[in-house]
Design goal:
Strand content: under 5%
Number of strands: 0
Structural class: mainly alpha
Order of helices and strands: HHHHH
């Protein structure tokens, strides 16, 4: 009889420990959830403040904005590079088929095939060769790589 009662005490004690462990885990999960919600709320508030800063500081005139852009050399470099790229690509698209037919004497099918071949292989090979050259110079984040 004594062993049965001892056994039930041990089992009861084990159940109490397991129950207490479950309660502790539940409390921990609630605390984590609260901290995540608080962090999310703070993050969203910080984002709202950051975004509202753009609207609140919108006292610059158009002239000030244009002057700021005209002295930003990264912006100007990219602007002129893309303008030149679009100019050249449009010129090639317009001029190449006519050049192939009238100057080189290719028929319509051959001119179209040459144009498609050049249009697909040119940019792809440029990306591959440009990547190899930039990697050889040290990568995009090095001074030598950025000069290229």
């Amino acid at each position: 009889m004594m062993s049965r009662s001892l056994e039930s005490i041990v089992l009861h004690n084990h159940d109490d420990k397991e129950h207490q462990s479950n309660i502790n885990a539940s409390v921990l999960n609630r605390e984590r959830e609260k901290s995540f919600k608080l962090a999310y709320k703070q993050n969203m508030e910080a984002r709202r403040e950051k975004m509202s800063g753009f609207e609140a500081n919108d006292t610059e005139t158009l002239k000030d904005k244009l002057q700021s852009l005209s002295t930003n050399f990264v912006y100007l470099g990219l602007l002129f590079a893309l303008t030149g790229l679009y100019f050249v690509v449009t010129g090639i698209q317009y001029w190449l088929p006519t050049y192939l037919k009238e100057i080189l004497g290719a028929n319509d099918e051959d001119a179209a095939a040459y144009y498609l071949t050049l249009s697909f292989t040119g940019p792809i090979s440029g990306v591959i060769v440009g990547g190899i050259v930039t990697t050889y110079a040290g990568g995009y984040n090095t001074e030598n790589g950025q000069k290229i």
